[in-house]
């Protein structure tokens, strides 16, 4: 990601509706995974550390981050409560293989040129019976200035993520779209940006308080649906993968 994106993330991820809602959705999904009581958990691409406290509800958390600025901010924010190391997927992972019950790539894989190699790297880090949890942006046709700002390489569909998992010798335990309620607004915003030639993504940054609160309420409501089943479309896509 760009340095400006990391700085914006550090300032807003505690309160921004999207970050808060995603943490609540991920926590709901993890609650249904039946992880070991003292699970060892790794987040690859931890950014500025906004997910680590949430993940720590489910076990002992370690993290990897490649960007020096983000790594510094994450360590400062968490007061060195977690083992956050410098590293890069797929070729510079500072943890030994078969170390973790759960590996998370939360909106990380889309930033990496070699996504297949990175997913294979994540699989090798799993203990027997472990799982990889992925969230990624959905639908290549939704590509916009926001993807460019965040240095995305691609967006995914169920079909392309299934195919990627298969190439890496992993099976899909579960897959679902999410951020479904706000899907029409997102599509309209991206079409508007294209028609206007806007090079700065509509909706970037922290919205005014009442708007931020309303968007969070709408987005986070999806955790109740995802606790029971799947959603047929959305701005984002999640998957739980295991070794075949």
Describe the protein in words:
The protein has helices at 3-12, 17-31, 52-55, 68-78, 115-124, 145-149, 158-167, 183-196, 209-220, 222-226, and strands at residues 39-44, 59-65, 83-86, 100-106, 126-137, 170-178, 236-243. With 244 residues, it is an alpha/beta fold. It has one domain (3-243): Rossmann fold (3-Layer(aba) Sandwich), CATH 3.40.50. Strands 3-2-1-4-5-7-6 form a seven-stranded mixed β-sheet. It is globular. Helix 5 (115-124) links the parallel strand 4 and strand 5. Keywords: Methyltransferase, S-adenosyl-L-methionine, Transferase. This is Methyltransferase.
Compact description:
This protein has 244 residues and is of the alpha/beta class. The chain has helices at residues 3-12, 17-31, 52-55, 68-78, 115-124, 145-149, 158-167, 183-196, 209-220, 222-226, and strands at 39-44, 59-65, 83-86, 100-106, 126-137, 170-178, 236-243.
Query: Would you tell me which CATH topology applies?
Result: Rossmann fold
Q: Can you write the helix and strand succession as a string?
A: HHEHEHEEHEHHEHHHE
Q: State the separation between the terminal residues, measured CA to CA.
A: 32 Å
Poorly predicted runs of 5 or more residues: none
Q: Considering the protein shown, what is the CATH homologous superfamily?
A: Vaccinia Virus protein VP39
Keywords: Methyltransferase, S-adenosyl-L-methionine, Transferase
InterPro entries: SAM-dependent_MTases_sf (IPR029063)
Pfam family, one: Methyltransf_23
Protein name: Methyltransferase
